[in-house]
Amino acid sequence: MSRTFYVLNGPNLNLLGVREPQLYGSTTLAEVEQLCQRVAQELGYVCEFRQSNHEGVLVDWVQEAREKAAAVVINPAGLSFRSIPLLDALKTLDQPIAEVHITNIHRRDALYQHSLVSLAATGVICGFGPFGYEMALRALAQRLGPA
C-alpha cells in the first residue's frame, strides 16, 4: 500500500464556486484542493488531486491509482448516475474508496439519487459540502491504519 490518496473530481467540478452557488456553495475547487493537501499532509499522505470533464480520463486515473496501490476519494459528479466504465474501473481497486458528494444526493431530484459508483465505494459521504472531502480523507486513513 502506498501512502498516497488520489482525490478525483468529475465533470463540472472545475466550476465550483461559480456554478449554482445556491446548491454547491461558494468554495472553489482550488480551495478544496488546498484543504485536501493540508489534511493529507497532516495524516502523513501525499495527495494527488485531479479534475476532469472526461470520463475516460477519470478511468485512466483510477487505473493509475490501482497501479500505485493508492486509496481513492472520488466525487464523480454527473458520472455517478450513468458511468458503467467508471464503476468497472473502481471495482478493480484493492484499496478503499470514499465517494463524496457536496450535496445530499438523497434529497435531490430522483435523477440524482442513485449513484452507480456507490456499488464500488467503501463508504459514501454526502451533504456536508467541501468538508466531506476532509471527512473522506480521515475515514480512509483510519481504515488503512498506521503506516
Question: Would you mind describing this structure in some detail?
Answer:
This protein has 147 residues and is α/β, with parallel strands linked by helices. The protein has a single domain, classed as 3-Layer(aba) Sandwich (Rossmann fold), CATH 3.40.50. It is built from five helices and five strands; from the N terminus they run E-H-H-E-H-E-H-E-E-H. The protein has helices spanning 21-24, 29-42, 55-67, 84-91, 131-144, and strands at 4-9, 46-51, 71-75, 97-101, 123-126. Helix 2 (29-42) packs parallel to helix 5 (131-144) and helix 3 packs parallel to helix 4.
Poorly predicted tracts of residues: none
Q: Estimate the mean pLDDT confidence.
A: 93
The helix-and-strand class reads alpha/beta
Radius of gyration: 14 Å
Q: How much of the polypeptide forms β-strand, as a percent range?
A: 15-25%
| Number of separate helices | 5
What is the compact description of this entry?
The chain is of the alpha/beta class and 147 residues long. It has a single domain, classed as Rossmann fold (3-Layer(aba) Sandwich), CATH 3.40.50.9100. The protein has 5 helices and 5 strands; from the N terminus they run E-H-H-E-H-E-H-E-E-H.
Keywords:
147 residues; 5-stranded parallel beta sheet; alpha/beta; 5 helices
Write the topology of this structure.
Layout: E1 4-9, H1 21-24, H2 29-42, E2 46-51, H3 55-67, E3 71-75, H4 84-91, E4 97-101, E5 123-126, H5 131-144
Parallel strand pairs: 1-2, 1-3, 3-4, 4-5
Helix pairs in contact: 2-5, 3-4
